[in-house]
Design a protein that fits this description.
The protein is built from 7 helices and 9 strands, in the order E-H-E-E-H-E-H-E-H-E-E-H-H-E-H-E. The chain has helices spanning 11-20, 49-57, 77-80, 90-96, 146-153, 156-178, 196-209, and strands at 2-8, 24-26, 39-43, 63-67, 83-85, 103-111, 122-125, 183-190, 214-220.
Length: 225
């Protein structure tokens, strides 16, 4: 089941878009049992904060979307939004949030020098591995190139780490799905985000892409991808 709560501006047009794309649209929270295959949207004009508190008390899993500029409501849809968008971007956004049997997993490499990605649910520090940066012939390369990949993944701790992370995700993702979650981000960080984290993220993405119930996207933040 996918449940969206929308607030902000252009809500009339938002309702039309959602209905055109097969979502059931309501003005209040659903009552009674919900079909786990359903796609539901609650469109609410301000004030919205109390509705959100009620949804939280009921343990509902939802994605909160705010359309347009900040409406100034304390603890409203703008402040708490999972997604902020213009109405023109709503079709693509709601399509990406539609109920699916496949879980969306983003794997991101990053450098601690530039800060930890705010959107990550899991962050792993891979600076325990030997750094290719200090190997003259590898320094100018990235983890996407074979020589660096072989250097990083050839280390025994990297082999253990990859197996452990894969096993963890395989166990935990079904529990996320059971609680209504449809996506998550795992971030792997090294010092500069160009060698170790890149090689590990790319390899982990390849391994998990073979899982039939996962949609996997790999991003390398410090490489601009």
């Amino acid at each position: 089941m996918s449940l969206l709560i929308l607030g902000g501006s252009d809500l009339g047009r938002a309702a039309e878009i959602l209905q055109e794309r097969g979502w059931a649209v309501f003005s209040g929270l659903p009552l009674g049992p919900i079909d786990p295959r359903s796609n539901l949207a609650v469109i609410r004009f301000p004030p919205v904060a109390e509705l959100l508190r009620t949804a939280d008390r009921q343990g509902l899993a939802y994605q909160l979307i705010h359309l347009g500029p900040d409406d100034g409501e304390p603890e409203g849809t703008y402040q708490r939004a999972h997604h902020r968008a213009a109405v023109d971007g709503l079709p693509a956004l709601v399509d990406s949030l539609r109920t699916s049997d496949r879980f969306r997993l983003q794997i991101m490499s990053f450098g601690f020098k530039a800060g930890i990605p705010a959107q990550a649910q899991w962050v792993f520090d891979v600076r325990f591995l030997d750094n290719p940066y200090w190997i003259p012939e590898l320094k100018a390369l990235t983890g996407l190139e074979a020589a660096v990949e072989e250097y990083v993944l050839g280390q025994a701790p990297a082999v253990t780490f990859m197996a452990t992370i894969e096993s963890l995700l395989v166990q935990v993702i079904p529990e996320f799905k059971a609680h209504g979650k449809v996506e998550a981000t795992i971030a792997l960080g090294c010092t500069g985000g160009r060698h170790r984290s890149v090689a590990l993220a790319a390899s982990l993405g390849s391994r998990l892409s073979a899982k039939p119930d996962l949609d996997v996207e790999v991003r390398h933040r410090e490489l601009g991808g």
